[in-house]
Design goal:
The structure holds 2 protein chains of 2 kinds. By secondary structure, chain A is mainly alpha-helical. Chain A folds into 2 domains: 235 residues, MetI-like (MetI-like fold, Orthogonal Bundle), CATH 1.10.3720; 218 residues, Orthogonal Bundle (MetI-like fold), CATH 1.10.3720.10. Helix content of chain A is 71%, strand content 0%. A 6-stranded mixed sheet of chain B has the order 7-8-9-3-10-11, with helices on both faces. A 5-stranded antiparallel sheet of chain B has the order 2-1-4-5-6, with helices on one face. Classes of the chains: A mainly alpha, B alpha+beta. At the A-B interface, α9 and α10 of A face β7 and α2 of B.
């Protein structure tokens, strides 16, 4: 019996540096977050509560002069009131219809025996990747009251219908169509993960199929639907492209448009913009809080270890009805707009004398693409976009990975605080991140303003929560034991992350990088406030082309962006397949 | 009461999930289907419930044919008047305990008073009336299981189906609840079909036990008979007769015979009807049926202790016999034998079961 006392064990006294390491690490993470999130937000708050212009160098006494003037002005301005009302109506109704569409599509795809439902399910997610601005442009081509392709079609067919999407109805329609995929994703995963015995128990209890759907199935996924509803409302609230394209021609101003106009007035009303931003953040916070409250402890759909296949409802002859519904959805949301962009992008003249001329190939040419790429700004915007995308993806991955690993896995001091700050960025609408960065950097000569870095870093700050969430969900799947086994085997913390964690999280890492890249390529709201003539990016240039009225070139550029994003997604999928095949 | 005749169910082309199962449950009896996972017991239960459609065969509940694919009869689950307790309980989390129990009653269009009375009765039966207005998510596993029982019994179904209802509970609770469960079912007097993979649960709960493997029902009989007169090698080994010895039939009388075990040793054992002289057989015997240190009667042999494993309340010996090894268990906290010792053992003839080898 040989008991070795602790004193006899070889001992290594941890050095001062080693003891300080966790603090240094947490400190540097907090400093990064401070730089990316807290400093811009503080400047926004300073801007909202003072009357100091961010451009002039303010004295300390001026900054310390607290003022509610901006809020008084903002809240008493009839223009703001109208914009708030318009935003609530457009986004509220848009959300309601997005929920109806999204739940319907997810139910058809997951729970019925509708033909080709897998393919329908994949196509249902496509609108997620069409930039809202491009969608809005496409729908203005289809639904403008005079020259809209749909109206020309109705007129030539002798149907007395004239639709006008330059209207509240147009805003609501486009919002509903392009944000229903968010609802779709939440609802379909809830439907898929639901224990089928809930429904079987209802069946045994004597309830018919329809009664079961309405009494059991839909109530059970209600929390998921509700949270997707709040999420899509908040996202819609911060979208600039759709109201700029479809609202402005009809003089319907939504909050984002109003906000942007404040910053391009002469002189710019930066303080008022900051006040409006703060109000929008507060509104968003209320919704985020509501979502949190509603979901707390009410997520009925739990993923159990048992792998069950969701039961599909045999619809009989009705499956062709649901098939038709799904087909209409796909035609309207994906095919029609792409068709409209294609027609406009290749057509020499906008005038369409007859339906037959729509298919007259002599009417088409590459002319718009030529003039698009003759414009030096186009190429510049492409390079800028790529560069911003890379900055966002690389820095975003590094920051998000450090944060999610620290929060999920380490015992580093302050990790709760790090988690809180990084997730709170989720409640800031994209264009307000733009305003905040504007406030943070415009007054500092030789600072970030006017560089591509400010665009990239703003997007990093904005998307940290999304990136960290994806990484966290993939980190959770790597069992703690695997990591501890590497420690026992003698690997240090960083070596373990590099040799164990990263290889096992590859799919999550690839998903994060491609998501960050795509989000940054399609981002308009944030960039709008931060670009300069030299740092223009594709979505901003597209908006400029649209506003200058060159519809052919706009359509060509819009189509190009859709194809570009599709290419990126395709590439990411290929990489993911190659990488996961080897593991 | 429940009649299942020649039931088949095919999921994939190669294999039948249920491969010709027939059985019958008399009114008021509890029948247990016992078997390893994937043996087809749950699929059989779900066919009876109407949640799966059998490929062939016939199911009758109380004289009414509810499934007969050849005659295109397939009555929907909701019209079968059965109650079912699911493995996951499937207590609807968006309803209270009372609402859960009332849901099937409402579906049957009962009057308000009738619904209230029956729901109260059902909850009192499982001792959960005071929890009626609790949220269903605030219950423990054992309580959920009882709510599930109340919910499936409230409308007095003709047949109660239970799909591993205790498997999600911890071991201690499981042993206590299985006694309660049998008492409640027996008090009501409902006919029940119960599925489990746990043999000790099957013995406590069932009036009869049907052992299934690979889609077939191998034997259906009382627990006593399953344990003492298994008719199939799988039934014997699944219920604990883990010792198997191979040999060849030398002679047979009525139901017993003499088997050549090799090395000149001869064993008297129970023989199946089809085992002719010269047939190859496998003999199964339970470790606890081997009498150590007994040298009288038929089937006494000398065995050498290869190793002894002391387990506290019993000792497990590995014995060398007929050139192979067998396990023997002796109850009691004392350990009598040590490694290498040679002892006489006796294998009771009635508890040595020979089964024909598959050719």
């Amino acid at each position: 019996m040989a008991l070795i006392s602790a004193a006899q064990m070889p001992q290594k006294r941890a050095g001062t540096i080693e003891r300080m390491l966790p603090w240094l690490w947490s400190g540097s993470l907090l400093a990064t977050l401070g730089f990316l999130v807290i400093y811009p937000m503080l400047m926004l708050i300073v801007g909202a509560f003072t009357v100091v212009s961010p451009i002039s160098s303010a004295t300390a006494t001026e900054v310390s002069r607290f003022s509610l003037q901006n809020f008084v002005d903002t809240l008493t301005s009839p223009a703001v009131g109208q914009a708030v009302l318009n935003s609530v109506i457009a986004c509220g109704a848009g959300t309601v219809f997005a929920v109806i569409l999204g739940v319907m599509m997810s139910w058809i795809v997951v729970r019925t025996n509708t033909p080709a439902r897998r393919i329908i399910g994949e196509i249902s997610k496509v609108p997620l990747f069409i930039p809202p601005l491009v969608a809005a442009v496409a729908w203005s081509i289809l639904g403008s009251p005079d020259t809209g392709l749909l109206n020309i079609f109705f007129q030539k067919m002798g149907i007395a219908i004239n639709i006008n999407l330059y209207s509240m109805v147009g805003l609501i329609t486009v919002f509903a169509m392009y944000y229903c995929p968010y609802v779709y994703m939440f609802a379909s995963s809830a439907l898929m993960n639901m224990d089928p015995s809930f429904e079987e128990a209802s069946e045994i209890s004597g309830a018919g199929a329809l009664r079961t759907q309405f009494q059991i199935t839909f109530p059970l996924i209600a929390p998921a639907i509700l949270s997707s509803m709040l999420l899509s409302f908040v996202i819609m609230l911060g979208i600039y492209g759709v109201p700029a394209v479809l609202g402005l021609p009809a003089n319907i101003s939504l909050l984002p448009v109003h906000l942007y106009q404040l910053t391009v007035l002469s002189p710019p009303q930066y303080n008022a913009a900051a006040a409006v931003s703060i109000i929008m953040i507060l509104v968003t916070l209320v919704f985020v809080y509501l979502q949190y409250k509603i979901l707390a402890g009410r997520s009925y759909v739990t993923i159990s270890g048992k792998g069950f296949r969701p039961k599909t409802l045999e619809l009989g002859i009705w499956r062709w009805f649901t098939f038709a519904l799904a087909l209409i959805y796909i035609v309207v949301v994906v095919i029609l707009p792409v068709f409209a962009l294609t027609v406009m992008a290749f057509r020499k003249f906008m005038f369409i004398p007859s339906l037959a001329s729509l298919f007259d190939l002599t009417q088409y040419s590459m002319g718009h693409f030529e003039s698009l790429f003759d414009n030096p700004q186009t190429l510049m915007s492409m390079w800028n976009t790529l560069e911003v995308g890379l900055i966002t993806a690389v820095i975003g991955l590094a920051v998000a990975l450090s944060i999610s690993y620290t929060v999920q896995r380490s015992k580093a001091p302050g990790r709760r605080l790090i988690d809180m700050i990084s997730t709170s960025a989720a409640s800031i609408p994209g264009l307000i991140v733009g305003v905040a960065y504007l406030w943070a950097w415009i007054g500092l000569p030789d600072g970030l303003y006017g560089t591509l870095w400010i665009l990239g870093l703003a997007l990093v700050g904005r998307h940290i929560p999304d990136a960290a969430r994806i990484l966290a969900s993939s980190l959770i799947q790597v069992h703690k034991d695997l990591e501890e086994a590497a420690w026992i085997a003698g690997s240090g913390m960083f070596k373990t992350v590099r040799t164990i964690i990263l290889p096992l999280c590859k799919p999550g890492v690839i998903a994060t990088v491609s998501l960050l890249f795509i989000l940054s390529v399609r981002e308009l709201g944030t960039s709008l406030f931060l670009y300069t003539a030299d740092t223009i990016v594709m979505p901003v240039l597209l908006l400029g082309l649209y506003e200058s009225g060159t519809l052919g070139t706009t359509a060509a550029f819009g189509l190009f962006q859709i194809i570009f994003i599709a290419g990126v997604i395709g590439l990411a999928n290929v990489i993911r397949h190659l990488v996961t095949r080897n593991t | 009461m429940l009649n299942v005749v020649d039931l088949y169910k095919q999921f994939s082309a190669e294999r039948n999930a249920i491969d010709g199962v027939s059985f019958e449950i008399p009114k008021g009896d509890i029948a247990v289907l016992l078997g390893p996972s994937g043996c087809g017991k749950t699929t059989t239960l779900r066919c009876v419930a109407g949640l799966e459609h059998p490929s062939a065969g016939r199911i009758q509940i109380d004289g009414v044919t509810v499934s007969a694919p050849q005659e295109k009869i397939q009555i929907a689950a909701r019209h079968r008047e059965v109650g079912m307790v699911f493995q996951s309980y499937a207590i609807w989390p968006h309803m209270s305990v009372l609402q859960n129990v009332m849901y099937p009653l409402k579906n049957r269009g009962m009057s308000r008073d009738e619904i209230d009375r029956r729901a109260k009765e059902a909850l009192e039966m499982v001792g959960l009336w005071e929890y009626a207005n609790r949220s269903a998510t605030a219950l423990s596993g054992g309580q959920m299981q009882r709510v599930a029982l109340a919910r499936s019994m409230g409308y007095s179904p003709k047949l109660l189906l239970l799909d591993e209802p205790l498997s999600n509970l911890d071991a201690k609770l499981r042993t206590r609840l299985r006694v309660d469960l049998r008492r409640i079912i027996k008090d009501i007097g409902v006919t029940a079909l119960y599925v489990t993979h746990d043999q000790s649960e099957a013995v406590v709960i069932g009036d009869v036990i049907g052992v299934m493997n690979e889609g077939r029902l191998l034997q259906m009989a009382s627990a006593q008979e399953i344990y003492n007169k298994p008719t199939d090698l799988f039934v014997a080994s699944f219920t604990g007769a883990t010792n198997t010895l191979t040999g060849r039939v030398l002679a047979r009388t009525d139901s017993t015979g003499t088997i050549d075990m090799g090395q000149g040793a001869q064993l008297e054992a129970m023989l199946p009807d089809l085992a002719q002289v010269g047939a190859n057989v496998t003999v199964a015997i339970r470790p606890e049926n081997i009498n150590i240190g007994v040298s009288t009667g038929v089937n006494t042999f000398q065995a050498r202790v290869e190793s002894a494993q002391y387990q506290g309340s019993q000792t497990a010996y590995t014995l060398v016999l007929f050139g192979g090894t067998i396990e023997a268990i002796e109850l009691g906290s004392g350990m009598r034998l040590t490694d290498g010792q040679v002892v006489p053992i006796s294998l009771p003839r009635e508890l040595c079961w020979a089964f024909l080898d598959k050719t």
